[in-house]
Write a structure and sequence with these properties.
The protein contains 6 helices and 7 strands. It is of the alpha/beta class. The structure holds S-adenosylmethionine (SAM).
């Protein structure tokens, strides 16, 4: 699979596991499965009867993820949805405890606006690549603009309490009030 750098990596993966565990996640959502690494990290931190719904549009990546989920002791906690994440989120009808945004950067503001009302009080939204290698400071491409706009929204959003961590390419952790 091309672009292995899209995976969150070991340090951020541990952070996801711990945050999912800390908020006692029973229903979690991930936007951007890729080959399944971050999904397995989140699932590891969940209760055994918890469910992570992970969304991706790439059938090749998802096929690889399915193989790893089948081999993992945490794989039974994961449900894969193939298709645009904004549509997949419409199929959920329970409050979400934990959400991880790591899909197409252009849609970050749309994912944020969709997810915040779907979160339970005390739930966590984690957003990856919020530093975007510094490109958020001088946005040129649509992906730069998407993340930059998301960052501006998060700062002003009184529905959450948020912090931006300088882990890897920048990770925002937001607690739903
Ligand atoms: C950075 S990768 C995710 C990496 C993964 N979270 C990990 O750490 O292993 C981003 C993924 O978002 C997916 N994606 C792009 N547009 C999407 C959309 N509209 N809905 C859902 N997934 C999308 C891509 O196919 C890609 O696999």
């Amino acid at each position: 699979m091309a672009n292995p750098g899209m995976m969150v990596g070991a340090t951020e993966g541990r952070l996801l596991t711990i945050l999912a565990r800390l908020c006692n996640a029973r229903l979690a959502v991930e936007i951007g499965t890729f080959t399944g690494y971050s999904a397995l990290c989140i699932a590891e931190g969940m209760a055994d009867d918890g469910k992570l719904v992970t969304c991706d549009i790439d059938p090749d990546a998802v096929a690889i993820a399915q193989r790893y989920f089948a081999e993992s002791p945490y794989g039974h906690r994961i449900e894969l949805k193939l298709g645009p994440a904004l549509e997949s989120l419409d199929t959920l009808d329970s409050l979400i405890d934990f959400a991880f945004i790591d899909g197409d950067k252009e849609n970050y503001p749309a994912y944020w606006e969709k997810l915040v009302p779907m979160m339970r009080t005390g739930g966590l939204i984690v957003v990856d690549n919020v530093l975007w290698s510094g490109k958020v400071l001088n946005p040129v491409e649509s992906s730069d603009r998407g993340i930059s706009e998301l960052n501006a929204r998060v700062v002003k959003d009184e529905r959450v309490e948020a912090v931006m961590l300088s882990v890897r390419d920048g990770v925002t952790v937001a607690l739903k009030r």
